[in-house]
Amino acid sequence: MERDEVECFLILAEELHFGRTAERMRLSRARVSQLVQRLERRIGAPLFVRTSRRVALTALGRQLREDLEPHHRAIDAALARAAAAARGVSGVLHVGFSSPPAGEVVLRAAEALRASHPELDVEICEVPLSDPYGPLRKGEFDVQLTELPVREEDLGEGPALLTEERVLAIASGHPLAARRLVSLEDLAKVVLLTIAGELPDYRLEHHVPARTPGGRPIAHGPSVTNMQEALMLVAAGKGAFLTAAHTATYHARPGICYLPFDDAAPVGYGLVWRAGDTTGAVRAFARIALEVARANLTGGELDSADLTGTN
């Protein structure tokens, strides 16, 4: 059943007059008749009794009106709430983060956003390593601060808000552990742990390249779904893991060395959202997250009062 058929039916059921119905819908009387006839054909029986003097509902028409009206009102109310949320900054904003540094930016931005928009609740949650875009696509997150690049047609991507160096997590007993620095060519000397889950090819290649820049093959080892699994296997000598520099600080543990690269591009983190789904709350969060990232970069303090009025 088409929405215009439902609206036409309900308005005509209220007005019982084709002319007034046409005026309210800003349609011609002929178009109103077409919509009613199309709906009646779809149902298979008349919904109105039409004479030269009056229009009346049939028994089936009255039943359909009673069934449809509450659902139609609920749909209109839901659309109105969605439009209001898109215009303003209210309700609940779900924000994801993919690393502890990204989480700190998200947390500070959430606190500032709550201060400037107390009518908005902000809930934050970690993005799973094995499914970096699934929760966002399902609507579990409205926006997330995650690793770049993001080459997904249905997702929008902002600029990098923060960057950090890449490191190789490796068992302390591995021959490379005695080195101060490693290069991407050294990956040919290790077995890299891979990541199980819903990762696009370019993202998997970023974490687990198949070859070094010089073309030498890189061996792949067991699959992991989260950081704790990866570090447990690294410490056990089952493989090495490409990660970001923060891991040495947040996941320091015996049996693992974190070796910086002298030739690897840094890891960048940017905001990602569903394309075409940027509500007022998402835009406000993006502006505040940028301010937080700048404050972190310069060592300055973010004053949430300066952000009051951000929309």
Q: Which strands sit side by side, in order, in the main sheet?
A: 4-3-5-12-6
Class inferred from helices and paired strands: alpha/beta
Calculate the mean pLDDT score and round it: 88
Helix content range: 40-55%
Termini distance?
38 Å
Silhouette: elongated
Brief digest:
The protein is an alpha/beta fold and 311 residues long. The protein contains ten helices and twelve strands. Helix 1 (3-15) crosses helix 3 and helix 1 (3-15) packs across helix 4.
How would you explain this protein's 3D organization?
The protein is an alpha/beta fold and 311 residues long. It is built from ten helices and twelve strands. It has helices at residues 3-15, 18-25, 29-43, 59-87, 100-116, 134-138, 201-207, 227-235, 246-250, 280-298; strands at 48-50, 55-57, 91-97, 120-126, 143-147, 155-164, 166-171, 191-195, 219-224, 241-244, 256-260, 267-274.
Strands, helices and their partners?
Elements: H1 3-15, H2 18-25, H3 29-43, E1 48-50, E2 55-57, H4 59-87, E3 91-97, H5 100-116, E4 120-126, H6 134-138, E5 143-147, E6 155-164, E7 166-171, E8 191-195, H7 201-207, E9 219-224, H8 227-235, E10 241-244, H9 246-250, E11 256-260, E12 267-274, H10 280-298
Parallel strand pairs: 3-4, 3-5, 8-9
Antiparallel strand pairs: 1-2, 5-12, 6-12, 7-10, 7-11
